Amino acid sequence: VIDKEARRLYIMDPIQTSQSLEEKKLRNLSGYFVFHFMLWWNGEDLVKPICAVSGNLNLQVEHFTFLPSIADSIREASLVISHAGSGSIFETLRLGKPLIVVVNEDLMDNHQSELAEELAEQNHLLCAHPQTLRETVEAMDLHALQPYIPGEARPVVALINEFLGFPV
Amino acid sequence: MMNIVTELQKDRFTPRYYVAALTDNMSLPKAQVYEKSLIHGDRETIIENAEFMQIYRSREVGQSYITAIATTLRAILHAMWLIIRIRPQVIFCNGPGTCIPLCASAFLLKVLGLGWSSIFYIESIARVKKLSLSGLLLYKLRMADQFFVQWPQLQQKYPRAQYAGRLM
């Protein structure tokens, strides 16, 4: 059951995720969300077609090639859909936002999906393929997701200091 | 990598040399932002304790393996030059292929008795079930003094690795 009130949906980057949301899927999803597309890359090729589609939808497209911090945008989101990059994943989890990771094995090395799959198994996020994204969004139960407790570098650094003979 | 650097006591690890691939546009700016943040007071933000350098990659994604022979050679020579120039006592690396020529050069100097670098390798958090090629090389050839993985599954598979939790 999807809450009908307008929510902000941030779709983080790239080409993989954006291309998977063809016009048809966008229309089907648009009844639920206000879209913000965040294109990270050379978004220019994609901005035009997405804006063309968005003419009929509540769609806002922002694109940038490098943003020092995407945290503010994530904070505003009710849901984030992202590719399987570890930076995107952990930044979103750290901010406690529901996350759907789109794994596209055609376009990226297989190893990128290991992380998303492991975290999905631990119920910290949802995993989808481009073909299954729509069903995932329709069937998602975001309340079932477990909060992710961030890791820290201190234990590793303690071992490094110990190895080098520094007082720990 | 920045997770580790922020946790280190800076006066123990100074000066700091950040090395990234020539085609990597994001890592050095991140490091520069961090190093600038360490400077206190009204002094101009000139970073004194850190240097930022780029290194040739052995092989770009999609490059033919035949031309990769020449570019790998170039990368090795460049790495050797950097190691001789910097003479690091400690090397932290986290996975990209760029670190292999550097670690190999440092290791070679160690073996020849011409220098001593403690090499710490931290495998990427995206590696859950399989090591990266760089990780596998360093592990099998025993070139790292300490080898960290971020998932317990990997530590079971590679017993000489250390698992001290996740960095992110």
CATH architecture of chain B: 3-Layer(aba) Sandwich
Number of domains of chain B: 1
Order of helices and strands of chain B: HEHEHEHEHEHE
Percentage of helical residues of chain A? 40-55%
Number of strands of chain A: 6
| Rg calc of chain A | 18 Å
Q: What is the 3D shape of chain A?
A: elongated
CATH top-level class of chain A: Alpha Beta
Shape of chain B: globular
Mean pLDDT across the residues of chain A is 69
| Strand line-up in the sheet with most strands of chain B | 3-4-5-6
**Known CATH architecture of chain A:** 3-Layer(aba) Sandwich
- Total domains of chain A: 1
Amount of beta strand of chain B? 15-25%
Number of strands of chain B: 6
Quaternary:
heterodimer
- The CATH class designation of chain B is Alpha Beta
Instruction: Give the count of helical stretches of chain B.
Output: 6
User: What's the helix count of chain A?
Assistant: 8
